[in-house]
Amino acid sequence: MKTAAYVEILDREGALLAAAAEAAGSDAEVPTCPGWRVRDLLRHTGMVHRWATAFVAEELTGPRPADALTDLDGAPLLAWFREGHGRLVETLAGAAPDVRCWHFLPAPSPLAFWARRQAHETTVHRIDAESARGGEPSGVGVDFAVDGIDELLCAFHAREKSAVRTEDPRTLRVRVTDAPDAVWTVRLSARPPVTVREDTGGADCELSGPAALLYPALWNRRPFPQVTGDGSLAAVWRERSGVTWR
Fold first, then answer.
1. How far is CA 25 from CA 12, 73, 131, 163, in A?
2. Using an 8 Å Cβ cutoff, are 195 and 228 in contact?
3. Which one of 32, 177, 191, 209 has the lowest number of neighbouring Cβ atoms within 10 Å?
4. 70-83 burial string, b = 16+ CB within 10 Å, else e?
5. d(Cα 147, Cα 46) in Å, to the nearest integer?
6. Separation of alpha carbons 39 and 99, rounded Å
């Protein structure tokens, strides 16, 4: 996907997140994030947006901690969220393609990284906001969902900090049923997972389904559409794959 497409998705998803949060109310529980209320979701996502903006806008070449969470609530919190989201979209849309700044996953360029990462960050948290609001969730495009699965499997869980590990070597397959060639083979062991985007060899367990359902399921926002084989590996993913801020 092109950077401009990610920025367009980020723009739309942030607006949907804010609308769902406003409809739910800041005190509403967030079913997909146990222990969180909508105010927590807005504070966290707004903080991440401002943190990401700083790297691109200020061309920061090393990591830096995020600011403390705001204590705003209600309408002022929503306004604060919308302002920060708008500034992130504006920064990414206006940045030079060759801007140099720190980023933490492999990418064609720093700008491509931040546009992709914030588009997916915001989409997953939009799903959270809509879970608090209730009703029919907004859709996720097939290509974007496949891209998000690829980022999660091939980038996030290729890092040393991934906790998705098994005592003995096992193989997990992830298959999107409505996109050709969208299949990943994940080799699990006592080391970080090793993932290739291909259907190779046997698998102990396969997680499969339409892209729009499998994407949030792998981010632990809904049940897996289909589990074939050893369901204990699906449980390993569910219990150990969470990507935390710290």
1. 20, 10, 12, 34
2. no
3. 191
4. bebbeeebbebbbe
5. 23
6. 33
* Structure tokens given for 109: 């360029």
Strands 183-188 and 194-196: antiparallel
Question: Hey, what are 200's tokens?
Answer: 């190779």
Can you give the pTM of this predicted structure? 0.97
pLDDT in tens, the chain (246 residues): 999 999 999 999 999 999 999 999 999 999 999 999 999 999 999 999 999 999 999 999 999 999 999 999 999 999 999 999 999 999 999 999 999 999 999 999 999 999 999 999 999 999 999 999 999 999 999 999 999 999 999 999 999 999 999 999 999 999 999 999 999 999 999 999 999 999 988 999 999 999 999 999 999 999 999 999 999 999 999 999 998 865
Which residues does residue 209 pair with via DSSP β-bridges, in sequence order?
176
- Phi, psi for residue 46 in degrees, rounded to 5: -65, -35
The torsion of the CA quartet 122, 124, 128, 129, rounded to 10 degrees, works out to 30
Token reading at 83? 């302002």
